[in-house]
Amino acid sequence: MNILFGIGLLLLVGYSLGFLAEKAGLPKIVGYIATGIFFSPHTFGFLKESMLSQTEPLIDVSLAFIAFEVGGSLKWEKLKNYGTVLLRILLLESLLPFFFVLVALIILGFFFPGLFSISSHWILILALLLAPLASPTDPSATIAVMHQYKARGQVSDTIMGTAALDDAVGVLLYSVSVTVAAILAGSHGANVGQSLLNSAYTIFGAVAVGCFLGWMTGVISRFFKIEKEGQCIVILVAFIALSFGISTLLNFDELLAAMALGVFITNFNKQSNQFFKIVERYTEDLIFLFFFILSGLHLDVTAIPGAAFLIAVFVVFRVSGKYLGSRVGAAWGGATKKVRKYTAGGLIPQGGIVIGLALLISKNPYFSDISDTLLAVVMGSAVFHEVIGPIAAVRALKKAGETNSETPEEIAAG
Fold this sequence. Notes:
Keywords: Membrane, Transmembrane, Transmembrane helix. This is Transporter, CPA2 family. The chain is 76% helix and 0% strand. With 414 residues, the protein is an all-alpha fold.
């Protein structure tokens, strides 16, 4: 199928299903993801496998814009009010899913090895590789829901701050776990210290790139006296693309760089309100439409039956860890009852970064014996997290009374 014809068809069908989902009281992105899954080469084969690689630049552009918007939501004036609460929630909602999934898989593998489709030698290694993938949250799904329902308030700010930062924790856990797993798999060259240094390089390098380009945005804006909306769009597209591109060249975390760019601009650029209003007004719907349709295209629902048991274990213990971690962390930080009760609902979505990390693992020759199993678990759980996650986020935000698309009576009734 011609690539432009395929994209046009996907956008039209995706927009239509998003509209129907909204009318049914669901987040629009559920319709977008359903469109991608329906047209996926893994499902009914309407689109060819070759088209997936052709859409990767569009996914990168969409991710860069979404990460920039997530960064823009992290305004210091808001975050300083939740500092201790945010850090304690972040710590526990990142670590508990990791430990829950790790321990659950090890115990089940020890007592019921027949439930795993791999030899007992690989069960511990698989547990070590899957556990860090339970920590990250997909902020793109959450921010899409928040914009659709115009969510504002303590719970919304806490969810966004936590979801934006737990990717960094996930990357650190991933680095250590993969190194230990490689040693167990027979790699004598694996080094935990070197792995941590590589993670620090990836994270701090990305932050440095984002902050430098954020500063440059202000310099360029003043030099050229940028005021018109068209000029602002050019500047934004240029610097968002640069943040992603430079990070790719230097092996930094691309999403963290785009996020750092957004954080710097929203906190230090006098034109920040103008910039983010333009992004929201002109690019948001198209970006979300593109990203979630294309994400759906990459999800392999056919992987679910063969790895159903492991997918169920991963999902149940990840969600349990997120729920317990956010509640205990919020209570530990002295958060309000509303934050303690409803933050977890916005931390379920998971996709982009986890799929990317899983693909990296699958390319490692030391894990070739379990790479298919690992990818099946990640892809299968991603279908659940990306469809159920936004619905859970909407429910939590409505219960917290932070959505503006309903009456107070509806909130009370919920």
